[in-house]
Amino acid sequence: MSTTTAGIDVPSGEPARIPTPEPGDARLARLSLNQRSIPSWSVREAVDGCVRAGVPAIGLWREPVAETGLDRAARMVADAGLRVSSLCRGGFLTDPDPAARGQALDDNRAAIDEAAALGTDTLVLVVGGLPEGSRDLPGARRAVVDALGELVPYARERGVSLALEPMHPIFCADRGVLSTLGQALDMAEPFAADEVTVVVDAFHVWWDPALDAQLTRAAGRIASYQVGDWITPLPADTLCSRGIPGDGHIDLAGLTSAVAARGYRGDVEVEVFNQDLWAADGADALATIVRRYAELVAPHL
Amino acid sequence: MSTTTAGIDVPSGEPARIPTPEPGDARLARLSLNQRSIPSWSVREAVDGCVRAGVPAIGLWREPVAETGLDRAARMVADAGLRVSSLCRGGFLTDPDPAARGQALDDNRAAIDEAAALGTDTLVLVVGGLPEGSRDLPGARRAVVDALGELVPYARERGVSLALEPMHPIFCADRGVLSTLGQALDMAEPFAADEVTVVVDAFHVWWDPALDAQLTRAAGRIASYQVGDWITPLPADTLCSRGIPGDGHIDLAGLTSAVAARGYRGDVEVEVFNQDLWAADGADALATIVRRYAELVAPHL
Fold it and tell me: Phi and psi for B281 in degrees, rounded to 5?
């Protein structure tokens, strides 16, 4: 017996609000563990953890996949019967320097190949921030549009969609100049609905006054729905500032219903970057994720 | 001789990039010191500091004005010949509890009276975050709209416009559910252009992909243009995370030109909340502000 059913939430240390659902529980049918929610786990450990907990899908990251080896990782998830809901991440396409740009395009083609090898049709793109020393935000955004045009044919041939992830404006300068779902759709719409898609991540988009209208526009183009929470006060390291679903201010019931109402039928990744969660035992962290998802997200799908 | 011409920028300690403009320099004609950029100064000290540095306008805050006494503060700025570019701040209108709401409306009426007494037609509204324990973001936003309807007649009679300040989405949960200029204009447009206006603060809006289009829509309704900068890594205390103009990622030349092109002819407040700046000597801080404004903002007005 692992500690996953101990009934203590991490990182809060508070008693769990619901019992941990058993593997096979219908509420877990669309849950995916985004691998970076438990970064201490290798691909092997994450796959085994998902199987033990009854989580049927996983969102993989390129770095741990590379550490394991692409083919081995692909076999592990296939042998375990897990779906790969997405591969994170391509992108970083804003640098106008020709050499940097060529390198970024090469790297994205490699990421597309890896997605195909892993059996997922969704490569998440974090588009990149302002180039070093630049204040040309429109220029950085145009560079992303240009790069999409170059990458789409390559991705299409491999059955992989480029999934644009709008990021919270807190990251505009240093990580993602793509700031709203509306902007992502502006970039996506010149392409077919299975060529360029969008990621709806609760942490990144919850504040957007245009969100509901843009979700309507996004119907048929949502490749991934990810959940986390916005907690205050914001932790000092903004990169790791996300909360476990239920610990923050986001109306996950409302957002999940809204995404479902637009026809989204895919897996739902729990993606939480949080130092306290990361410091916890992996199985305990996953049990908390499973409970929160079953309580707060699954009923609204 | 004060240290204001020492030619060292605060908080960086680096040599100043341009000489400090003398009082009367045409570049300073529209500069306003937002009082919270130098919170160690009383109203008396801020007024004297502005006069010495040749800064012709000041953005006042209610708390230091109350400490000085409203009538005394009004006399100080009038006697010094300073314009009051704005009074900060009313708002905090999102709590649906009837008692809290009544108190907030009373407080805003008092703020309107204070603005009129100080001789400014601009009361900046920070609308407030989610009520304690609430995840109802649309409800919080509706509460602001409702409150505007109640406050506008009172403000109109006193010649004060309610200036809606969209805040960076980093503050959506805990300070301001008004997140974009477009959303502010949606709230403002049912009212006359001198009744409900908007604040364009570079720190809050620079990331917005819809900014240029919304500035066009905002023409005639911009009551205040405020400058600061977005620095990375973001300081741990997000409330004090602003940079001095020129220290960060914002294209102040482009934004200033864009605001000017929409016909804005008012004062430009330098508003920087930054612990390092706040720890500096007031006169040194103001000299840095004056130099950066003259170098980076004034040429584009």
Answer: -60, 135
